[in-house]
Every structure is written in C-alpha cells, then in structure tokens.
Amino acid sequence: MADIVYYDDDPTEIIDRLTRSESKLFDSFSPKVSGDFARAFDKAKDADLWVLDYFLGVQENTDETLDDENGLSAFEKWRRPLKEGRPPTALVSNALEKVLAPGVPPARAHIHARQVGVEWVGSKADLSALLALLSASKQIRASLGSLDSPLEDEGGIADLLCAHVLKAPGKARWYRSAERQVDRARPPSLSIASNARGRTRLIMAWLLHRILPYPSFLLTRTHAAVRMGVTPDSFDRLAAGPALSILSKALGVAEYSGPLATI
C-alpha cells in the first residue's frame, strides 16, 4: 500500500530533499518513463495522498498548448475511474504565481484548489505541508475506520466530527457548543463517498477550503486574542502561563491538535 503517489517529470525536486525515513513514504513516477503513468495509477488506487506536479513536462515560464499534459489533466484521468472514492490530492509547483490568478497571494491558494477540484495547491518547497496532509489523511481514515456505528444519520455528523476526527474533549463544558458550531459550519455529507478514502477526502476538503482559512470554530491566536479582548502577545503569555492556573489550563484544553493542526 502506497502512502504518497508522486507524479512529476522531475521527482528529484522533492525526493532529494527528504530524509531517508520521509523518502520511504513516497512512490515517485515520471511521464518521462515509459509505462509509469499506468504504474502510478495502479499504486494511486490504494494511496493515502496523491501529489502531482502542476505543469509536468511543460516549462513553467512558457504558455501551454492544447497538446500538453499537465498535473490537472493527469488528475482527471485518475479521478474518473475512482469517482468519489479517490484519496486527497495535492497539486504542487515551483511557479505558484503562474498557477494562481495575477495578484492572488499564496495564502489564497485554497480558493484555486476548490475551483479545480483538488484538496491542496501549494509550493514544492513546502514539504512540511505535504507531510501534514499525509498525516491528516491517515489520522482521519483511521478515526472513521474505527467506528462501529453508521457514519452518518443526518444529524449525528457534527458529533462524529467533534469526537472522532477533531478530537474535541468530550468532558469539556463547551463541547456541546463546539458541536453546534461544527454543525453550523456545514460539514460534508459523507454518504456520497464509496469508501474510507473518499470520506477522508471530503473531510479534508472541508477543513482546507472552508474552515482553516477563515475564522470558524477554529481560531488563530490573533482571533482568539481579539475575542478575549487582549493583545496577541498577552494571549501568548496567558496560554503559556503556570500549568495550574485556571486560565492557562482552560486554554490548554481548548487548543486544537487534530488533523491539519500544523497547517
């Protein structure tokens, strides 16, 4: 079973920068190698994450032609047979400014990802993001796979996400409030996916496109500070205060450490 299936005309751009243990997570393939596209797809069916070079053999500093193959067209060929059962997908490039519309900052790449139907669009330089995506895919699939009850009974999805995926502490006084906020954030309907990988992808797309980029039931330190009426520096001091202080303890319990926390 593959962890990451990586398809790039020059896989060494990422592979050569990985540690030995990290490189074992990648099965790399190239359009320059005869038959690699089919071999990559065979591995991709059971992978936890697809990573494709956005431009493949097309030079980043030239305009594409109708005959050119790129990461998006390769993605579509892999996606169609698997339909909603495919795993999460990341498109990466060394020329992110060409991928995004003129004037769009990298921080808005999630909008482009949603538009083209993948979960992540980012720079090849951001290896930590790819490893975080892999870790999240594995965590979420393991959480869903451990459930004995039906995945969705139309109304229980918020509790499922809070308890099993987001790892919210069930004994916290604010748990039911968090559950209501998750429900208001329009979580995905998991019933449309045919397998655990597809359901994992739906949750990751929801987190990456609609939750993490904006203030929601998850807050950055800056947003949390504003809500508390303190400066971000004061918030940091409160969060890092004595372990036995009431406020420090309360903030520690509320800190998010679930999938994609590092992103």
Average of pLDDT: 88
Biggest β-sheet: count, sense, barrel? 5 strands, parallel
- Can you write the helix and strand succession as a string? EHHEHEHEHHEHHHHHHH
Shape, please? globular
Placed side by side, the strands forming the largest sheet appear as 2-1-3-4-5
In short:
It contains 13 helices and five strands.
Description:
The protein is an alpha/beta fold and 263 residues long. The protein has 13 helices and five strands. The protein has helices at residues 12-15, 20-23, 36-44, 71-82, 96-99, 109-116, 127-145, 157-165, 175-184, 196-211, 221-228, 232-239, 246-254; strands at residues 4-7, 26-29, 49-53, 89-93, 120-123. α7 crosses α10 (196-211) and α8 (157-165) crosses α9. The longest helix is centred in the middle third of the chain and has 19 residues, at 127-145. The radius of gyration is 20 Å and the shape is globular.
Keywords:
263 residues; alpha/beta; globular; five-stranded parallel sheet; 5 strands; 13 helices
Topology (elements, then pairings):
Blueprint: E1 4-7, H1 12-15, H2 20-23, E2 26-29, H3 36-44, E3 49-53, H4 71-82, E4 89-93, H5 96-99, H6 109-116, E5 120-123, H7 127-145, H8 157-165, H9 175-184, H10 196-211, H11 221-228, H12 232-239, H13 246-254
Parallel strand pairs: 1-2, 1-3, 3-4, 4-5
Helix pairs in contact: 7-10, 8-9, 11-12
